[in-house]
Amino acid sequence: MESQSEGSSSTLHAVIFSFMSIGHTLPLLNFARLLLRRNVAVTVFTTHANCLFISHNL
């Protein structure tokens, strides 16, 4: 594990993976938006079929 030197900043990074139905994905996208507003980096794992839906809703 790396230690941080004084004065360096740490960026939080959240990884989101949901079941592939829209009903499971929408609440997690709302959560991702909240994290993004707080300057947290967010990575969303999804299928190719859902990629367009997710990119339009973030």
Describe this structure in words.
This protein has 58 residues and is α+β, with helices and mostly antiparallel strands. The chain has one domain (13-57). Helix content is 45%, strand content 17%. The chain has a two-stranded parallel ribbon with strand order 1-2. Strand 1 (13-17), helix 1 and strand 2 (41-45) form a beta-alpha-beta unit. The mean pLDDT is 83.
Short summary:
This protein is α+β, with helices and mostly antiparallel strands. It is 45% helix and 17% strand. The chain has helices at 22-37, 48-57, and strands at 13-17, 41-45.
Helices and strands in order, then pairings?
Layout: E1 13-17, H1 22-37, E2 41-45, H2 48-57
Parallel strand pairs: 1-2
What strand order characterises the main sheet? 1-2
Radius of gyration: 14 Å
Q: What proportion of the residues is helical, as a percent range? A: 40-55%
Helix segment tally: 2
Average residue-wise pLDDT: 83
Based on secondary structure, the structural category is alpha+beta
Poorly predicted spans = none
Number of domains: 1
Alpha-carbon distance between the two ends = 32 Å
Order of helices and strands: EHEH
Largest sheet: 2 strands, parallel
Number of strands: 2
Strand content: 15-25%
Shape: elongated
Protein name: Anthocyanidin 3-O-glucosyltransferase
Organism: Phaseolus vulgaris (Kidney bean)
Transmembrane segments: 12-32
Keywords: Membrane, Transmembrane, Transmembrane helix
